[in-house]
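haha ok so turns out i had the wrong file open the whole time. this is the CORRECT one, sorry everyone. sequence first:
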Amino acid sequence: MEKQPNFICKDSNQIIDPEPMSIFLGVVAFLGSVASIAGYIEFRRDQRNQFEQQRIKTLREAKDLLMSLEADIMQVETSLHKLEFILIEGTSEHYSMPLAKLKLEFGSCKPLFTFHGFKKYEEVMQELNRLVGKSFDTTSKLLQRLYNLDVVISDDVYRKLIELQNKLNRVLRESVTYEEGFRIYYDLIVFTKNIIRDIRNILNRHLQ
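then structure:
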């Protein structure tokens, strides 16, 4: 059996009286340094919570902006229907060629309005201009929100956005009549509404 060391000195002149409690303080300091990791975890957890709250807030803001765009594009569609009706009225009685035969290009359509008819035409144009200006502002805010989000827009939606660009470029190049033009723009509006709805559905999934 191993012999245990004798810590008791028989010579009183060599007796040392240390404070063993100080060792426990050292142990506490060591364990405390490990325990301090909890503070870091709590700090990171608070950061994550704040980030998640900000993320949800930004997602909801982006969703609201998309809903605003949806509402505005429906108003654009309504205004376009009003414009079509007003132009038909303004060309049917005073113009030799019906609107359906006129080319959709600058200078081809010269409607003649009564004062009341012109006021209606002016109201529709002002309404459309207001909606266009509002859409620029809404889209700008939406892009800022999307930039700060980790939302991945699907390839399908991306392809639809590229297709929308191509459709818009094509309609500007093609030679069509006013009647055909209205039909094309109505289709483009429906196509755009579907894209907006697709993006909103993506955001909804991130909010669940």
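The helical segments are 21-35, 37-92, 115-147, 155-173, 178-207.
again sry for the mixup
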